[in-house]
Each structure stands twice: as C-alpha cells, then as structure tokens.
Amino acid sequence: MGQPIKIIGITDGGKSSLLPIYEKWIYESECLIGGERQLQFFPEYNGDRIVLKGNLKTAVEQLQATDKRCVLLASGDPLFFGIGSYLSKKLPVEIYPNLSSIQEAFAKIQESWQDCTFISLHGRTMKGLAQKVDGRAKVCLLTDKNNTPATIAKYLLSYGIEEYDSYVAEALGGENEKVVQLSLEEMTDYEGHPLNIVILKRTGQGPNWSLGISDDEFKQRKPDKGLITKKEVRVLSLAELNLHENSVVWDIGTCTGSVAIESARIARHGQVYAMEKNQADYENCLENTKKFRADITVKCSKAPEGLEDFPNPDAIFIGGTGGEMQDLLRVCASRLNKGGRIVLNAATIETLYLANETFRALEFETSVRLVQISRSKPILHMNRFEGLNPIYIITAKHKEEQS
User: Fold this and answer.
1) Domain-ending residue, one of 99, 132, 154
2) Domain that holds residue 361
C-alpha cells in the first residue's frame, strides 16, 4: 500500500459539490473507487475504476495490494453512517467530508438537528424501531428500497404512534430535489424518489409509560390475573438484570410480556426475545407489545425448546420454568454472555432450593432477595394492607464476574 487513500464526500450535485482541489485530486489519481452513481459523475476518467456493490472486503483486499494513487467517492459525510469509519480501520486514509443529506434536509425544513435522534434503516431490519422512536422529539431515518417512507409510516401506525408529522426529503442536491411534509397517515401511500430520508417531528403528546407500569394496564388472561409479574417485583427484577441500552434480553415464561416490554423500553437499541407456552397468554403478550410500543420477538413455545433460535443474551429473566428448571438453567447458563445475569422469580422454597443447587453445580454465583410487598386497600373510611405472595428473586452470574 502506497500513500493514503483520499476519501472524498460528494453529493447528488456531482462535480459542482466539490472543491476545485478535490476535483484535481480525482483526475490526478490512478484509481477511482465508488458506487455506480458516484462514478457516473466522471465518465471521462481514464484511470482504473472499482465499483462498490457491497463487496467491501474484496475492495479492501484490492486496495491493500496496490501502490496506485487512489481516490474513493462517498456520499456526503463519509463518517456519518458511511464507509469512512470502516475503511479507516483497515487502510491508511484521508477523509474530506461534504455536506450530508441530513444537513441539507434540516436546512430545507428550517429545523435545528443537534437534538435529533438518528437511526439508519439502510440495509437493516426495522425490528425494534417502535421503542427507538417512541417519545423522541425529532427522529431522522435513513431509508432504503425496502424500508421506504410508506413502509415506515405503516409500521409506526401499527404501534399506535400517531403524534408525529413527517418530512420526506428526496434526491437532495440533485435535479430532482424535493421535500414534502406529510402526516403519517398520508405517508402510507406516498411514493417518491428512491433516494430519500425521513424526518419525524413530534407534534402531539403520546402516552408516557414510566418504569413500573401498573399491572392493570396489561391485558391479562381472566380469571387468572395473578400470573403477571407484579409491578414492585418487576421493578426489582429489572434492576437485578442490570440492563443497558444495547442489551440482548431473554424473557422466559413471559405471560403478559410485562418484563419483556419494560426491558425493551430500557434496552431501546438492543434486542428482546420472549417465550410463552400458553397460547392465550402469548396472544395477550402480542397485544400488549402493540399498546406499549415495544417491538420484540415473541415465540409460543415451551422452553428450553426454541431457545436455539435466539442470539446469546446479556440478561435472562425467568418468570416460569414449566417444570423443566434444571434443563432450562443449564441451557441459559451455557448461552449467557460473559458479564451477564440470570434473574429467576420463585414463589416456593423448593424452587429456590433447586435453583440454588443447579446454579452451584453450574459454577454460578447467586444472591437471593425475599420480597414481601403489601398494598393499601380501602375498608370503609379507613385503609388496611393486603399482602402479595412473597417472591424470591434469585440473581445468578458467572463466578469470575463476582466482585
């Protein structure tokens, strides 16, 4: 590899968006790299060309083996959801950013963008978008041919997210530049230029679900309403899970989905997977995920069967074992990422004992909290307290992680 590769940002304005020195470097180079759209701006270029079509690894290998002077063209700012970050870890580079489509879009709608949440859907799944968007004042979405403005609008509305206006900014900097303002309902039928970004601006107040959602808010199987993990126990269990915004979480025996849903609202940028063996509870869980805007993966199965389809977790909550505790704990212990935690709720001393013995055999450290909660209840003109079932909260983690 000779001298560093110059990575130059370019907009849909083509050559007119470049400083003269950048254009000079391009024509002085011996190899020009970029997507087909960027390379078309330089039909008269006489050097070698490398077209990027998702073959970044192959392109890196070619560039590592060459001594030619190379320039790579990237859209806008190469370090904003761009190729610059990836290449800078593989090759010696110099980066020269241009205006990004984000900057241009916010300029067009005359909005500041330092307080915006940015989410790329380009080449990515939309899974989990609901909890990432919910409650944010401004959101900017980078789209692609599958995650179009219409698809995004239909998805958000399916989770009851209606309190946003949208802007679709298309082909910015080019001849077909266009910016339209739409309601989410209007955007469900919108077909525009394939090169676009979507900006969401909250114009109304959505529901405010704080930590510790009331039990009565969840749809539950009747008359067995006691199957939900009670709010107080749920909050303590969530604290023991030690979640962060990128956590991968399992909720086994999810029932109403209360723990999984609250986990998703904490781990907004992570992934939450829930499992429930009872069909009626499974269906209630799905309804609850829509109500509470938590786009999680829910599977109707009896654990540990089906857990092989989930990625390794950072945290596991077990609200019910279905009588397969030892096998289930072995599977969970073998899959748990280092530094992660397993939190199990037990209602009996027999379950507590078996869980502790199993974790000891698996060389996990455990701590236990006995939670006894009483809630006030009116009686005539007075109040008394009514106790909930005592619950053992068992927290287990790898021995080497114990401080």
Assistant:
1) 99
2) 215-401
Residue 158 lies in a domain: yes
Residues 240 and 370 grouped into a single domain: yes
Highest mean pLDDT among 75-89, 156-170, 316-330: 156-170
Task: Check: CB of residue 317 under 8 Å from CB of residue 249.
Answer: yes
Predicted pLDDT of residue 82: 87
What pLDDT, in 10s, does the model give residues 92-111? 999 999 999 999 999 999 99
Give the CATH number, domain containing residue 154: 3.30.950.10
Tell me the whole-structure pTM to 2 decimals: 0.89
Same domain, yes or no, for 235 and 189? no
CA-wise closest residue to 253 among 145, 352, 325, 357: 325
- Give the bridge partners for 108, in sequence order: none
* pLDDT for res 401: 55
pLDDT > 90? residue 181: yes
Confidence of residue 307 (pLDDT cuts 50, 70, 90): very high
In this structure, the answer to whether residues 386 and 288 fall within a common structural domain is yes
- What does the mean pLDDT of the chain come to? 93
Evaluate if residue 2 carries a pLDDT over 80.
no
